[in-house]
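Standup notes
- DV: blocked on the single-chain target, sequence here:
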Amino acid sequence: MSVIHPVANGLRTDHPVPGPPFINDERLPLDNPEAIERTGRNQGKGLWGRTDSLPGGGWVAFTTETKNRAYAWAVHQSPEHGRTVLLIPDQDMSSLHHNWMHGHNGFLYRHGGYWWDGAAWHRPSQVVDRAYEGYDARLVKDAVTVTAADLLARPGAPGNARIAKITDFTAPEEPLPHWRDHLALWAASRPPGSLPLDRCVIDLRAPELEPVRFVDRAGLAQIAQLAPEDLPHPKYGRSKLPVPQTETSEGPRWPGPSPATGPSSTAESTGRRHCCPARRRSVPTSRWVSSLITNA
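- DV (later): unblocked, structure below
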């Protein structure tokens, strides 16, 4: 699964990604997916838009932002879970469209690929099942869903935050400091009839995501039995990993995953044979790792 990094949350989203700013999305006709598509589709060179109905109800819609063409809007509307409004890099539109329409991996992504399907959290899609031409859905053990109501139980200071505008927007390199204040401003800006805050999913908490369980490049090299300088650069992803290093009585020993692709861990038994051996360690990564959850 491609890991998409949202650069901002739409102000009318129901499920903010922790870390990025909130941006004014009033130009988006969120009740009309065809109109969202027409915003970018056939409007000029380099512009694009698309909308599709979801199999279980609801829809997705995408459009290049015409006033800032480096970015695109992505909207996921669920009849049960409300809407997700994200600003993403324009080149990531097709990848997110594929994930939402055909990925079978939920619609909310956190921590480098952990995904939520509306009922439970799952680990990133890395255990391949060739027979079914997909990935095993592996539940996160002891996962706890963190909602906006949870984070705002200790109120933020909305006066210290601001809503960004799309025209001069530039994606920040790091998570916003004091993001809880921005979340408080988002909550204060929600119109009547919005999804209740205790149903607005922000993040997950799980033992395997605790910082003490993280593995750095040196630890990753030790697991893979490689020198640190022999690890692929994180930007190249899993496709550039070296070939298996050694043979054991149980088969080949594979190198661990690249930090760019998120965690992997021992696969639960499903009664089916996997083409890839299960990994032994989790390597959670996220561009927007912050202290919001641990400090809540």
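- Follow-up: Confidence is low (pLDDT under 50) at residues 251-291.
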